[in-house]
Design a protein that fits this description.
Strand content: 5-15%
Strand order of the largest sheet: 1-2-3
Number of strands: 8
Number of helices: 15
Length: 377
């Protein structure tokens, strides 16, 4: 998402992309690089125990991005009324009572207002990037204010994406698919790229050729098999890929200490509340299936990519869909429509599974300790 922001944004430094394949696409770069106003939000930190606190955090995220365009106050293309709209966004105070309700209405319109002002200033439609759009919904589901947060996000995204004539295009990322979640009611022009889609599949990670090229560049070719064991094994669409975050971090570590051992970089790159919550609901059959996976075998499960946070925790079988869509499991093959043979992709994830399972066994003393020990050893 940062790459998209820097590529499209006005003032882009072309040197950022020197030596990359995109720099060879001269016509494309001439047409798009540095030619658009870009609004970029990440909602990964919008989490709180109550709705009012979550709204305050969302307000901080919006205001921080709005302040990036402070030059709008001096724009000769904006009227005084336009600049007054900008100042409303900057000075937005959550407050309480009626003031709180007014703040909600401004928040719902904030992205639409900002894109309108930017389009008027630049004479170009806006690109909107929203990373981890669904984190506020997940936290709201955990803490009991899901309906209120859904209404707020629906209003904000509806105005920004559905009826916004100043929008060129938008990109959203999230844990769950966007098509069924009620916040997108009425949007019919979404292109959803999930873990099973073929379109762009090779771009979700590093190919084996790319990893070999990187290792040769840093004279670390002897580490290929170890990196493959730990960080390869993911399948997006028809492409087999490595986790790029892990490869980059481990190669960087090896540059300074060639004897350093692999470790789980990916597990700390995002929250794992969903997994922890579902694991606590696991039945004996679920735990047997997880043990089978840790032992290097596969399980066959029907996967739903249309879950919403409202229904996510209603059925323990949803665990398999979440593990699959979040990268804890990958598919070996499709056995039927939406039914896959699932496996743990690599050593990193196997280690994470073992840690999660061991803690789960400690919470469930009724299970046979001998069976647990035999499984792991």
């Amino acid at each position: 998402m940062n790459m998209l922001k820097y590529f499209f944004s006005y003032g882009c430094d072309p040197k950022l992309f020197d030596g990359l394949d995109i720099s060879g696409e001269k016509e494309l770069c001439e047409k798009y690089m540095g030619k658009y106003p870009v609004i970029f939000l990440t909602l990964k930190d919008v989490e709180a125990r109550d709705f009012e606190s979550a709204v305050a955090m969302l307000r901080e995220v919006i205001c921080h991005e709005v302040l990036r365009f402070h030059f709008l106050l001096k724009s000769d293309r904006l009227s005084q009324e336009d600049k007054a709209q900008y100042e409303k966004l900057v000075r937005l105070d959550i407050g309480s009572g009626q003031e709180f309700l007014r703040s909600l209405n401004i928040l719902k319109r904030s992205l639409r207002i900002l894109s309108w002002l930017l389009c008027k200033h630049y004479g170009r439609k806006v690109i909107l990037l929203i990373d981890e759009y669904d984190v506020p919904l997940d936290k709201a589901r955990h803490h009991g204010y899901y309906d209120e947060m859904t209404d707020l996000i629906r209003g904000m995204f509806g105005q920004a994406l559905k009826t916004n004539e100043n929008l060129f295009f938008a990109v959203l990322t999230g844990c769950l698919r966007v098509t069924k979640e009620s916040i997108f009611t009425g949007l019919n022009n979404l292109n959803v790229m999930s873990i099973t889609n073929i379109q762009f599949d090779e771009y979700f990670g590093f190919s084996d050729t790319e990893v070999r090229t990187m290792l040769e560049y840093y004279e670390l070719g002897d580490k290929h098999d170890l990196i493959k064991e730990w960080y390869d094994g993911y399948r997006f669409g028809n492409a087999d890929v490595y986790c790029p975050w892990d490869v980059i971090n481990y190669v960087n570590q090896l540059r300074f200490d060639p004897n350093s051992r692999p470790r789980a970089f990916w597990i700390n790159s995002s929250g794992n509340t969903i997994i922890h919550t579902l694991i606590r609901k696991a039945t004996d059959q679920t735990m047997d299936d997880l043990e089978q996976l840790v032992n290097g075998l596969s399980v066959t499960k029907t996967i739903s990519e249309e879950l919403t946070y409202r229904e996510l925790y209603d059925n323990i079988d949803n665990l398999w869909s979440v593990l699959f869509t979040t990268g804890y499991l990958t598919r070996r093959k499709e056995t039927d429509l939406n039914t896959y043979e699932l496996v743990i992709p690599n050593q990193e994830i196997r280690m994470i599974f073992e840690e999660q399972l061991l803690s789960r066994f400690q919470e469930a003393p009724m299970r046979s300790p001998a069976k647990a020990i035999a499984t792991f050893w």
